[in-house]
Amino acid sequence: MRYDVVLTTYAVLSKEIHHATPPPDRITRHEKRHERRVSPLVGISWWRVCLDEAQMVESGVSQAARVARLIPRCNAWAVSGTPLRKDVQDLFGLLLFLRCDYFANKSAVWNYMDKASFKSIFGQIALRHSKDKIREELHLPPQKRVVITVPFTAIEDQHYTELMRQMCDACWLTPEGLPLQEGRDTSDPEVIERMREWLVRLRQTCLHANVGRKNRKAFGARNGALRTVHEVLEIMIEQNDTAWKSETREMIMNKIKAGHVMAFAGNIEHRARSALTLYEEALKDTQSYVESCRAELLLERQKLGKSTSEQPDVLTTEDHDTSLDTDSEDLGRIPVLCKSLRLFLELEHACKFFIATTYHQIKEKEDLDNPKSDEYRRYEELEVSWYEQAKAIRRELLKESKGRAQQQMAKISSRKPYYQISKIVDLPGLGGIEARSILETMDNISDYLNAQAKQIHTWRMKIVDILLLPLVDDDDDKDITGDEYDDSLKSQDELYVYIMALRTLIADRGAAVNGLRDTLVEHEMKAAEKQAKGKESNGEERGHAPELVIEVANIRRKLQAGLTGGSLKGVVSGVRSLITGLQWRADSGDTRAKAELDVNQKHLARIQTIATQQIKTIAELEKEQDMFRGTMNQRLEYYRQFQRISDTVAKWKEDLDETFDQSEFDKFESLHAQKKDLVAVLKTKNTYLTHLRTENQNEAMPECIICQDVIEIGVITTCGHKYCKECINTWWHQHRTCPICKKRLSSSEFKDISFKPKDMKVQEETTQVPNTSSTATQASTPGDAGTSIYSSMSETMLKEIKMIDLPSSYGTKIDSIARHLLYLRANDPGAKSIIFSQFSDFLVVLRGALRSFKIGASSIVERDGIARFKSDPSVETFLLDAKSDSSGLNLVNATYVFLCEPLINPALELQAIARVHRIGQKRAIYEISVKRRLEHMGRGSGGAADAVRKKEEDGEDDEIMGQDGGRGERVKEESLDQANSKELRDASVKQLLRKKGDGEIVKECDLWKCLFGRPRTAAVARPVVERDVGRLERVTAAVSRATDGRF
């Protein structure tokens, strides 16, 4: 033999299965003509067979595993870095290959084997080496680790703070982690599970606002485009604005309801005057918001370049004209602002209407019997004036829907006269015996279509008459009763029935022309007739205008009874068949057939003309039907809005209360006070978010008008003015007003802001060289044993990275990673990086951002993603998530590993690092952990890895971890390898992950520390003890006072 060693693959082993196993012993009729080829793998006795990545044969039943067992050999080696993935069953395939069949095939042995026996058996057939044990032989380059802390921007910080508040509310906890309810223990499984879900969402938010299903849903786009930070801010402003105005409306409504309670108090003499005060207060608040909404709408119109006016309409037709082919994006925020303005106008209408009603009650109830007196005339003028103001607002509210309805009505009116259905003339008698049946059929169809045309015209005119009825409120002198919507229901029901009947006749006409029946229309007509014939005593309604439904159904049935001749299409088909037969006979010389052929051809031409004309007629009728239906819907929408406005000013009660309902009044006053405080908070938040928008556009540092110094730690008021926090506190305690605009302020109308510059920080850790000893372990490369495993990053390098400009911003974390990658492209050409995250959603978001930054990337889930990363120079990064099984993956061509978030379970992080720091790596490995200041997670894995991972950021406040800053224990590279080997050995990566890509599993003991920066016992047990001790002290003091006789 020429070679001593043969290398092959598992794919080759699988293909050799048919040549390695002997064929079955079968009796054949003839001798074999060709000898069966025997695989050289089984034809040679090998001294040693060595399987690398032996976990590939762990099942023992694959083709590769079967061939591997059949290879003759004296010695067998199985090499694997992950011999166990799930449980001990993974060892059976390896034992079969090693020919330890007794252990592999005896289930009883495994059922009764203890740990000592297992260790004794496998200690004889297995040898385990870890990286730290053979460091001298591997000569691996050192690992250099840098922890980069990037702070939140003000926008991201505001969003995160709001999520933390929502988390505390959802988990029934205070911001300090204390229980809000006495009866709900913090060890409740529901509380723990909710905290886990919120922790996942908060950690996803630290990556990007689009990561996670719930985060995307909160921003109104589950699978929408990737949003930049500024787009996220606009959504936050819009959501807060919606919540602010909604709570404001609730606040005003509670004030109006309190006025209702006062107005219906039968035992209060001047109840109308008392209610008037409350209505006027509600009106004052409402008008301020109406003016604000009008101003916002005017600015938005100017921004979009639309027509503007001093008093913009609630919603003009040009904004929502369906006939215009414009995108909804062209309208900007106009629809949202119009809706807000409309809701506040409804409140203003209600306030003015109730004020007018109150003046009417004062005029009628307070001894003003003389209609000629000045006071009586004054109240009457006030009443009329306020009713006119309410009427003007009502017309403004109805202007848009009324304009749409009138526009549709104008279309109907302009179409007069409507499409005229031409009468079908009977076919002329041209003689001929063969055409007699055709003429009879055509006469029957013609009579049916002509009679139906008359009925269609009748019902069409009835529809037009109803649709052209003037809308209520067209006449300025007509009083509004509040029952306009109900009054229109009768005519609306008749209109609905006539349109349904017209649709049915058009469908019948189509069946008479084309021979195709519309089963859906027929079903609707039959169902309506059946419902109309029902009785109301059984609790079911009879539908729209039941008598009219029965009438039109009978008329339609009578028309249908007159049709016995099929359809025009059938007649055409019959004539063509007849012509075909006559043509054959005429070609044979039959004179009569030739005459008959000429007659039938003329009939065919005439019938085809009639059929074409009727198809056109049906198309025109369907267009008119669509126009009628559209007009009906617009009129119905107008009356629906009219009725909604009427409902807002409906009577509070039919009769007066005998006595003043104090409890009901106090309830509405309390709700009004609560809503007022909430409105103040939301208004302040809106001012703050708007300030963030302008701050992003203007980088100038603001000055405090009180101390004339630059503001670092300050506050912003609801009126939009900024001051130093200490300065405004001193001022407010003395004046309770804004120093600039003199607006009176409450404590809830301040929002903390900070202009103190925040910057990313680099945490560098160096090994502390211990006292040398004779047994000191050497470093992985020649040199001092105390070589640092953590790399320093100079201020110059950090400044160069920060100075890299990006075309857009997707958040500080994504921007920081992108800047580092662009820096590596410029300063370390050809270097490749692995980006690791436990959330696959984030890698999707990051992939989109990297694409916009022109940075090539591939991932493990892509087809040929690994091969492209290894061979394609344009692919600079490889995206790896914790959920993907990356064991055995070799990516030694990468030099940098970016860990996007800190991990509580170090085994997940070590899996990513192990893809690069392995045999074959020639360059130093840089592990760059990109953290937020809100992501300093506690490491709760225990064991040797705890000593390695116990690293805290230095002295910076932490909203998700608290203030547990401080330097961790300084470790050497040898200690790191020992701890990493133990961590990977003890932890199963798959068991550390949640389902559906929701990241790692967090233990209950780590949960409280991650969210509140302290263990649960320290946060929860203390208040319970204090409460019990306080109760005991109070009881003791009471007993002491009773003993001393002080009661």
TrEMBL record:
Question: Which UniProt keywords are present, listed alphabetically?
Answer: ATP-binding, Helicase, Hydrolase, Metal-binding, Nucleotide-binding, Zinc, Zinc-finger
What is this protein identified as? Similar to SNF2 family helicase/ATPase
One annotated GO molecular function is: hydrolase activity
Q: Which GO terms describe its biological process?
A: DNA damage response; protein polyubiquitination
Recorded hits in InterPro entries, A to Z, give:
ATP-helicase/E3_Ub-Ligase (IPR052583), C144_05_dom (IPR059033), EF_Hand_1_Ca_BS (IPR018247), Helicase_C-like (IPR001650), P-loop_NTPase (IPR027417), SNF2-like_sf (IPR038718), SNF2/RAD54-like_C (IPR049730), SNF2_N (IPR000330)
The species is Leptosphaeria maculans (strain JN3 / isolate v23.1.3 / race Av1-4-5-6-7-8)
GO CC, one annotated term: nucleus
- Specify the RING-type domain's residue ranges: 704-742
Task: List all Polar residues biased stretches.
Answer: 765-781
PROSITE patterns under this entry? EF_HAND_1, ZF_RING_1, ZF_RING_2
Record's compositionally biased regions (Basic and acidic residues): 966-982
For region Disordered, the annotated ranges are 761-785, 938-982
